[in-house]
TrEMBL record:
Gene3D superfamilies cross-referenced by the UniProt entry: P-loop containing nucleotide triphosphate hydrolases (3.40.50.300)
Domain Sulfotransferase residue range list: 51-301
Protein species of origin: Sphaeramia orbicularis (orbiculate cardinalfish)
Protein's recorded name: Sulfotransferase
Principal subcellular localisation of the protein: cytoplasm
Source superkingdom: Eukaryota
Subcellular location, record wording: Cytoplasm
Lineage: Eukaryota, Metazoa, Chordata, Craniata, Vertebrata
Enzyme class label: transferase
Coiled coil: none
The protein's Enzyme Commission number: 2.8.2.-
Length: 309
């Protein structure tokens, strides 16, 4: 999208500031979603991607923006300037997001783009429009360990003034365990894609693996996309997608979203990006309680999560 497209997106958010509020959650097939998404659900469910489109799916705050940037750079041969053509949500639209006018919805942005498109979603597997699987689209799923994901989501809900008030940390832990946050249960989310990964040819990757060895995971994504880039380009992409470089990149750090929507004085959109930060938030009692509940909720599946690396 052109510079004009980027400006129109940012200006649309600014023009809608007066109508920005913490929107209520409404269940869609049992999954709590922001009311604007719920009200437009039929259009979202009916979306028909091109077979060449790529879906990047995550539970919120699990490495979505990081993966979007890696994919964009891979598709553009590591060209950093091309990848600064517009902010992340314009380059890689958020499928289900809907906001007050004149902010364009994810579907509005996708209509303006020619395939192949890179499409972001936080929808659990069962709510992904079925045409993605009918058309055999490729999909990358990024999963992050529950404790770090919870911490990151808590800070995000504090600064994202469109999602319900998170309340105190101790209560938020229980909301997370009960799946009462936007986009529902982390447990069901990670298990849903895990169960379908072979049948649907989903590349299932872990945030912790990306932090431990980013080059290895960038190469995995490259191969999945049927690309072959020289070593020096891979090295460049790894460097460009380091946490520090992305935090400093205005096209990736969501600084295009004004403070009445994302108040980055409360918490930056890109906060720490670490594995194990949960140890700074959970008390020993909270950790024990969470671990016991985790064992119950995950007893039917063996997904190799790591809470430390």
């Amino acid at each position: 999208m052109s510079r004009e497209g980027e400006l129109s997106y940012t200006e649309a958010i600014q023009r809608a500031e007066a109508s920005i509020t913490r929107f209520p959650l409404i269940p869609v097939r049992g999954i709590p979603l922001m009311n604007y998404i719920a009200e437009n659900w039929d259009s979202i469910w009916a979306f028909r991607p091109d077979p060449s489109d790529l879906l990047i799916a995550t539970y919120p705050k699990a490495g979505t923006t990081w993966t979007q940037e890696i994919v964009d750079l891979l598709l553009h041969n590591g060209d950093a300037e091309i990848c600064k053509r517009a902010p992340t949500p314009v380059r890689s639209p958020f499928l289900e997001i809907c906001s007050p006018p004149p902010i364009p919805s994810g579907l509005d942005l996708l209509k303006e783009m020619d395939p192949p498109r890179v499409i972001k979603t936080h929808l659990p597997f069962q709510l992904v429009p079925p045409a993605f699987w009918e058309n055999k689209c490729k999909a990358i799923y990024v999963a992050r360990n529950a404790k770090d994901n919870l911490v990151s989501y808590y800070h995000f809900d504090c600064m994202n003034l469109t999602q319900p008030e998170p309340g105190p940390w101790g209560g938020y832990i229980h909301k997370f365990m009960r799946g009462e946050l936007a986009w529902g249960s982390w447990y069901d989310h990670v298990k849903g894609y895990w169960a379908e990964k072979e049948k649907r040819n989903i590349l299932y990757i872990f945030y912790e693996d990306m932090k431990e060895n980013p080059r290895r995971e960038v190469e995995r994504i490259m191969r999945y996309l049927d690309l072959s880039l020289p070593d020096e380009i891979i090295s460049k992409i790894v460097e460009l997608t380091s946490f520090k470089n992305m935090k400093d990149n205005p096209m990736a750090n969501y600084s295009c979203v004004p403070a009445p929507v994302f108040d980055q004085s409360i918490s930056p959109f890109m906060r720490k990006g670490e594995v194990g930060d949960w140890t700074n938030h959970f008390t020993p009692e909270q950790s024990k309680m969470f671990d016991e509940d985790y064992e119950k909720q995950m007893k039917d599946v063996k997904i190799p999560f790591r809470t430390l690396i």
